[in-house]
Amino acid sequence: MEHPKKLIIDNKSDLSMSDCLSLVQKVLSFGRISNDGKQYLYLASVSVNESEYHIVSDLNKRSDKITIYKKTTQSWNSGESL
For residues 81 and 5, what is the distance between their CA atoms, to the nearest angstrom? Predict the structure, then answer.
C-alpha cells in the first residue's frame, strides 16, 4: 500500500503553529506505528506549559491528518446522559 503524500495539520488548540509543528514532528519521527503500520501514532497526550494536549492522527484516502486539541475538563451530573 502506498502511503498518502499529503499531510494536513489542524491546530484546534491555543498553541502557536510553531509549537504544533514541533509536536507533529515528534509524532512523525515514530513512523507509522498504528493501524498495522498504516497510520501515524493514533493518539498522543503531551503536557506543554502545565496544560495537556492531545495529538490525533487520521488516515484518509489521499492524506494523513494530524489534529492538535487542548484537553478540557468536563464533568457530568450522574443523572445526565452523554
Answer: 41
